[in-house]
Every structure is written in structure tokens, then in C-alpha cells.
Amino acid sequence: MIYLKTDEEVELLREANLLIGKTLAELAKLIKPGVTTKQLDKVAEEFIRDHGAEPTFKGFPNPYGGAFPASICTSVNEQVVHGIPNDVPLQDGDIVSIDCGTRLNGFCGDSCYTFPVGEISAEVKKLLKTTKEALYKGIEQAVVGHRLGDISYAIQQHCEAQGYGVVREFVGHGVGHEMHEDPQVPNYGRRGNGILLKNGLCIAIEPMISMGTKDIYMQEDRWGIVTRDKKPAAHYEHSLCVRKGKADILSSFDEIEKVLADKFI
Ligand code: MG
Ligand code: MG
Questions:
Q1: For 81, left (φ over 0), alpha (ψ -120 to 50), or beta?
Q2: Does position 265 have pLDDT exceeding 70, yes or no?
Q3: Distance 16 CA to ligand 1 centre (A)
Q4: Which ligand is the nearest neighbour of the Cα of 173?
Q5: What is the pLDDT of residue 31?
Q6: 7-263 has CATH 3.90.230.10 classification
Q7: How far apart are CA 133 and CA 129, in angstroms?
Q8: Is the CB of residue 151 less than 8 Å from the CB of residue 183?
Q9: 120: confidence class by pLDDT, cuts 50, 70, 90
Q10: This prediction's pTM
Q11: What ranges do the domains of the chain cover?
Q12: What's residue 263's pLDDT?
């Protein structure tokens, strides 16, 4: 069932999503060689709770049993998504995708950003740049009158043109009272296919793109998803509302990128 959101609901979704941008900006200040993803998780959880929200990932049930133990997913290098924060220090040249979910005033935010750790190679920089571009290419298509497949096609096309793998098993989704609502938003598909996009449809678009194969496997912890060829993968995600002419992006990378710009001057 797809629920279109009222303007009032969209504003509540925006609040939940803007808190993620602020949380990730706090983490951006800390990300450097030697820091562990567990340390980042602790900071994120405190920051989210201090702002009156709940981290939606914490306790999220796993279909194989158990629940996610942390407030953010931290996926390093060949990990694509759902990495559990751990005590392994990040190293110079790593990348870490930090996916974050919040629930605030009954609405869920969902956004992800892939961060460089120290100095990364030109090859990996290009992967990050292309994946982020693909996200915005998808968002450009998220307007009234287009179809869901237009979003999927734009993302797939942009990434495969660079020879990258587009992960199939995990997809974007509707957002609202629940973190994952209908419809599913794949990062691959055909132009002109799928549901018609209507005003007030709120979705998360989240390309998960690998430098090599699109094939993945699940780690023994039943959470972490890794590329089969162990090549690095990137993941960027915005939540947005479909509008006429131009989507309204509800999450924000502005504060994150301000921190990154200051850091790399
Ligand atoms: Mg997410
Ligand atoms: Mg999501």
C-alpha cells in the first residue's frame, strides 16, 4: 500500500531527515585514520537521542533472527550495506558508508553518505563521485508524471556507463511512519515502467554501486553485505518528496560537505 503524504507530514519527515544530515556532519568531523566505527556509533546514538529522536536501526529485526545492535550501519570498503560498527580502526585510504535512520515525532528519516578516510585513490574518488551523481540523476526523475522505472534507469545507466556494478538485492523504498514503506525503488530498471509518480509520494533513493561486480554475499554475522570480488562499493541516500517539476529533497548533505570541505583544505 502506498501512502501519499500531506504537506504537514512532509514537514515532519523533513525534520527527521535533517537530523540525519546533522548527525552525519558530527561524524564527518571525527572520521580519520585510527577512529573505530564503534566510536562513531556511540557519538551518533547520543546525538540522535539528545535531539529527541530515536535511532531506528537499533533493534531492527533480522529475518534470520536477532536484531541490529547499533544506531548506524558502517560499511567499510568492500562492504556494501548493513555493516555492524566494530573495534577495527579505520585506515588511511578506506571509505566508510554511514547509513543512518531516525524516528522523530512519529516519522522516519533515512539517509546515507560515503566518506573518505584520509587520502583515497583517484579510482575510489571516481566511484564516490559517480555514485553520488547517480543519486541526483535519479532524483531528477522523481517528479510528478514520470514513472518509477525512470528513476531506476537513470541510476543504472549512469553507473554502468563507467563499468560499475549496480547491486540488485537491495533497493530504495517509500518512507513515512515506517522506515521501509511501499514502493520499492530499485537502482536498475526500464524507462517508462512501474508506477506513476504522484505529488506527495515520499521515497528514499539509494544507489549501492560497486567498482567491480554487482554480485554480493552476506557475512557470517547475517548483516554485512560484501561485494563478491571484494572491490569497494559506495552508497548515497536521500529521502525526498515527489513534486511537480522538481523533487523536494528532505535530507541534506550540506552540513556534511561543509565539514568535509573545511577538512580537506
Ligand atoms: Mg538508509
Ligand atoms: Mg533506505
A1: beta
A2: no
A3: 13
A4: 2
A5: 98
A6: yes
A7: 6
A8: no
A9: very high
A10: 0.98
A11: 7-263
A12: 81
